[in-house]
Every structure is written in C-alpha cells, then in structure tokens.
User: Fold this.
Amino acid sequence: MKRLVTLLSTIFSTWAPKLYVLYARNIDEFCSHNSELRRNWLGSVFTVAVFNLGPQTVCYSHKDFSNLSFGWCAITALRNFDPTRGGHLILRELGVAIEFPPGSSMLIPSACIEHVNVAIQAEETRYSSTQYTAGALFCWVEHRMEGNWEFFEKLSKAERGEVQLQDLNRWQTGLLHFSTIDELKALSL
Assistant:
C-alpha cells in the first residue's frame, strides 16, 4: 500500500502542483502542531485512506461534500473483474463513463463532480482504495488549530468580516490552485 499511496501523491504533484503544495503545507502544519499525530504514510499528502473490501464494492452516485471543495481524491480499483463489462467510473457532470480496470487509479475533484461506479458481474470481485483530505482539516489549520467558535470569538468585527468575505470567495481561491496545460508544460522543461 505504501507504494500505491506514494505513487498517487507523486501523480498528484505532477498534475496539480499548486494544489499539491497546499495539501503538503496543510498536513505539515497540522502535524507540527501536535507531536502525537502521525501521517498514515510518509510519502502521502492525503490524510485519509479508505479500503472498501467488497467483495463487490460499488459506490452509489454522490459528491463527497466533506472533502475540500476544490480538492482532489485518489481512487484505485482492485481485484479481478472485466472492466469492459462493469466497474466503469461515471462522472455525471462531464457526461462520461470511463473503463476503470483493476490496478488503475484516478484523481478527481470528488466534492464537485458527482461520481458513481457500475456494478460488476456476479462471479467477479472488486475492491477499492480511496484517499482524500477533509475540507474541515484545511479550515482547522487556517483557523490556527481552533474550531470556528473559538476562532471567530477572538476576531474583531472587521476581521470577522474579512474572513467571511474570504469564505465567500473560496471558489476563486480554489481555481488559483489548478494548473493550466501551459503551466504544466513549463514545469516539465
């Protein structure tokens, strides 16, 4: 598993370098605040790893609203099934169904794209692994390791207004963490 989670973080850093840096800084700051906290895997920027052990793992159509709203989620299909007959990953807003063979992985913005996977055949087995970081963890770090009540209680009225304005514009901040193809090409030179 360590190889898989490390590989997926490396892929994340390749295709979303600015977002990856946000994740890395967030987990570093979070862990440095409390010496008892340990990462699941040293090579990963994701704080949560979930293993769905079937025997026929299927997820129903959903968005992961607890994830960082503009964040990415790493999904891996595992075990033995025919990907031409089932197990497809459907991304509703994009209108696509993607063959998702065993051993393959994908990173998607799971909080803003509705996704589902197709059932497999009765005699087949499908497991999955998912990695993500909850949006509340980013909020916790941004709020100086305090809950909303404690954080806002210490702010002046003007500071509260500023934070609320930042919250309203969070989607724009999220877009700044996405990379264009031209930016990615420039990094590879």
The chain has a mean pLDDT of 92. Residues 17-33 form the longest helix (17 residues). The chain is about 40% helix and 20% strand. Residues 90 and 96 are 6 Å apart (CA to CA).
